[in-house]
Amino acid sequence: xxxxxxxxxxxxxxxxxxxxxxxxxxxxxxxxxxxxxxxxxxxxxxxxxxxxxxxxxxxxxxxxxxxxxxxxxxxxxxxxxxxxxxxxxxxxxxxxxxxxxxxxxxxxxxxxxxxxxxxxxxxxxxxxxxxxxxxxxxxxxxxxxxxxxxxxxxxxxxxxxxxxxxxxxxxxxxxxxxxxxxxxxxxxxxxxxxxxxxxxxxxxxxxxxxxxxxxxxxxxxxxxxxxxxxxxxxxxxxxxxxxxxxxxxxxxxxxxxxxxxxxxxxxxxxxxxxxxxxxxxxxxxxxxxxxxxxxxxxxxxxxxxxxxxxxxxxxxxxxxxxxxxxxxxxxxxxxxxxxxxxxxxxxxxxxxxxxxxxxxxxxxxxxxxxxxxxxxxxxxxxxxxxxxxxxxxxxxxxxxxxxxxxxxxxxxxxxxxxxxxxxxxxxxxxxxxxxxxxxxxxxxxxxxxxxxxxxxxxxxxxxxxxxxxxxxxxxxxxxxxxxxxxxxxxxxxxxxxxxxxxxxxxxxxxxxxxxxxxxxxxxxxxxxxxxxxxxxxxxxxxxxxxxxxxxxxxxxxxxxxxxxxxxxxxxxxxxxxxxxxxxxxxxxxxxxxxxxxxxxxxxxxxxxxxxxxxxxxxxxxxxxxxxxxxx
Length: 631
Hints:
- By secondary structure, the protein is of the alpha/beta class.
- Among the domains are: 21-174 and 318-344, ABC transporter type 1, transmembrane domain (ABC transporter transmembrane region fold, Up-down Bundle), CATH 1.20.1560.10; 359-444 and 517-596, Rossmann fold (3-Layer(aba) Sandwich).
- 60% of the residues lie in helices and 9% in strands.
- It has 24 helices and ten strands.
- Helix 3 runs antiparallel to helix 6 and helix 5 (132-145) packs antiparallel against helix 12 (296-337).
- The two termini are 30 Å apart.
- Mean pLDDT is 75; it is low at 1-20 and 598-631.
C-alpha cells in the first residue's frame, strides 16, 4: 500500500452519533438510466389520479340530478361512467405497478453489481481487515432491505402525491370551506411523521449493524473450519449461547423498529378516519334555516373525496417515514462505494503481447501499515531472469510471502517498483498481469462445486482432455478417476471432502491448466507427504521448465535446485546465491540448515552413518545430507 492508505473498515461511530447526510441526488442518479420508463409511470399515475376524482362528481350528479328527477337514462350513463372509471383506473394501476417494479428491480440489480464489482477491485488489505460476514451483510441485508423502498416507494410517492393534489383540487371545487376544515391538522401530521422517520432511521442503522454481526457469527462459526474448531475446543455450547445473545439483541431491535412511532402514526389514522364525522358535524353547524350550505349530493361526494384522500395521505406520510428509514441503508452502501480503490488499473494500461517472464524488484519497500515506524520489506533488490528460478527462505515473518504478493499486485509497493519484462506491474493491464502470473499458495481454496468446475475456474473453455492432462501433471488424475462421479465429484465446502494433499494437488492442476509464464509457489507442497511431494515436485519441475519460478518453501529438496536463493531477515535480503555458494559462505542460510533437524537426531544419524570427511564449515554437509525434510 502507498503511504496515504486509509483504514478500509468504515470508521466507528459513537452511540447516537448521526451518519453524514446522504445526497438525495446521488440516490436519484440510480434511477437516471430508466427515466423514460419512469416518465411513463408518471403519466399513468397522473391519468389514474384524474380518473379517480371523476367518480365523486358522477356520484353527486346521481344524487342531486338523476335520481331526484327520475332520469333513468342519465342514471345509467352515470353508473356506467363510474364502472368504466374503476376499470380504467385498475388497468392504469397494473401497468404502473409492472413498470415501476421492473425499474426498481433493475436499480437493485445495478446497485448489487456495482457494490460487488467495487469490492472485487479492492486490495487484499481490505479483506484482511473486514469480516466476511460484514461484507455479505451489506450486499444481502442492506441492499435487500432497500428493495421495497427502491421498488415501490418512488412510484408510491409520485402516485400518492398526485392523488392528494388532484383530490384536494376536487374538494376545493366542491366546497372550499369544508376543505379548510379537512386540512387544518395536516401540518401536525407532517411534523409527527418526520419525528417518527428520524426515530426509525436511527433504529434501522443499529439493526443493520446487528444483522452484520449475526451474519459474521454464522459465516465464521458454521463453516467447516468453525465447526471443527468449536468442537475440538469444546466451545460449541458457548458459541450457541453467544449466537442466542446476538439473536436476542436483533429481536429487540426488530421490535423497536416495528413499534417506533406506531402510536403516533395510529393517532393520525384515527383522526383521519374520524374526519367524515367532523365534516357532517361542520356542515350541520353551518346550516341556515335548517338547510345545509351544500346539497346532499355535494356533501356525500365531498366525504367520498375525503375518504379517497385518506389512503394516499396516510400512505404519503408513511412513505416519508420509509424514505427516512432507508437513508440508513443507503448510507451503509455508500460507505463501501466511497472506499478508494488502491489497486486500480491505470487509465492507459500496458498490454504485453508476449510475456518472457523477467521479474525485477528495484529497491522495493513495503509495509501493511503506513503509520508503522518500520515496514515489512526494505530496499529489496532482486532480479529473476526469464525462465530461471528464485527460492525465498528465512525465518517466519521475514517477509517472504509479502514479497511474493507484490508480483501479481495483490498489494502495491510503498517504495521502489516491481517490473515484469521491464514494465512496472502497476502500469500493466489486469488481464495481462493475471494471465502472466500463476500462484499456488499455502492455503488452498476450492469452491463448493465439482472438480471440473474448480479446474475450469482457471480456464473456462478447457476441454475434458486438458483437464485430465493437468490432473495427471499434478499427480491427482488417478484419485479423481477412482471416485464414483469422477470429475463431477463435489469437493465440498472449501474442499473438505478431499485431504490436504489432494486439495493442494487440485490447486496445482488448476495452475497447470492456466499455463502462466511466471509461477509463484508459496509452500505449494507443504501439505504433502514425502512420497506425494516427490511426485508433485516432479510435475512442478516439468511445469517450471522454461518458466520463471519464485518458490517459498522450507524443504531443502525444493530449494537446492533453484538458480538463486535469497535469504530474508526482517524484510531485507541478507544473502543471495546458489545452494552451494551459500553453504560455503557459512552464514544465515547454513545456520537455517543446521537448525532444521534436532541435534539429537543429527547425533543418531552420525552414529548410524560412517564418518565422512567434513569441510571446514563443521556440520554443513551432515545437515545437507540429512535434509530432504524441512528447512
